Every structure is written in C-alpha cells, then in structure tokens.
Amino acid sequence: MLSIAVFGSGAGSNFRAILTAIQQGNIPAARISLVISNNSGAGILGIARANALPAIHLSQKQFPDERSFADTVLATLRDHGVNFIALAGYMKRVPPAVVAAYRDRIINIHPALLPRFGGAGMFGMRVHEAVLASGEKTSGATVHYVDEEYDHGRMVLQLTVPVLPGDTPESLASRVLAAEHELYPAAIGRIARDETSPEHQRN
User: E strands, the chain, where?
Assistant: First the structure.
C-alpha cells in the first residue's frame, strides 16, 4: 500500500486528479496520508482540508537552516506513516536529506517530454514558451522519479499532446495540464501495482 504525501505550492489540480482517482477506486493500493505546501494560502491545502486530510504548511523560511527544515519534514512524514511522496506543482527544491531518505519513492510531474525542456529554471509557462520557440510538433508531460538533479530521475510514464498551429504558451499549457491530470493517476497506479520499481524490473 502506498501511503502518499503530496507536496504542492499552488492550486492543486494534479492533487485533485490523484485524489479523485483514489476515491473512485481506480488506484486501490494507495491512499493520501498527508499534504504539505510551502505556501500557507495554496489551494492544495484547501482541497485537502475539504476532504478531511492532514494539510500542513511547511516552508524553509520558518527554519534557521536547511538541515532543521529537512529534519522537520522527515519527522512529519514519519508521524503520518508516509512511505511515498508525489510532487504536484511543488515549486521548491526538495532537501537532499529528504531525497536520500525516500530514494526511489519520490516522483514528480513535469509539463514536457523529458529529457527535453527540463532542468533548473524550466517550470511553468517557461517550459511551454521554450517548446513553441523550438518549433516542436509535440509536447506532453512526464512523470519521473526524483533525484538530486532537476528533472533527471528515471522516467515512469509520458503522455504526448500535439502542438497546434497558432498555439500560445497558454493554450499549450492548458492542453498539457489536461494530459497531466490523466497521466499522474495512471503513473501512481502503475507504481502501486509495483510495475516500475527497480525490484520489479530485476525480477
């Protein structure tokens, strides 16, 4: 059973898609145990609270250094029995100590077809602007495992969408976001069925 903490900074639409899939029984081997946001006013916290889920504001700005922040994050995850983390629009770097403690148990969704259009500084509308500037005919979304490098870890799933004539960054972003809402629950379902773990792939 995946006991998931979802980290997010914004409206929480990907979190809502994951939660809905779990509530509808489409991911039977997973539950949401905790939601964490660095933004006290984030919509993701409101969604969690409306569904009676633990929702906590934790920001490094509340702590004197990264080590104390990471220690608090890890203690909070342990207190809620979390064994898996899903980043859903989390706009902050995950402390290396947290990455190390949850090695191969943290995933992220990125609004492009990695390894293209990823890396430091490639987030939000910047990604879609870069895709359009490149002349690419397709874009999409990628779910991948998180390591110490931005957008670098092993891929779980991708979903492709067309880049249409006359697309703006906003119209492309809307199409990619719809794909994300389909892709992220599907990826978590695969992981919950143990289809993508290193152990499974060695068997």
Answer: 2-7, 30-37, 55-57, 84-87, 106-110, 138-145, 155-162
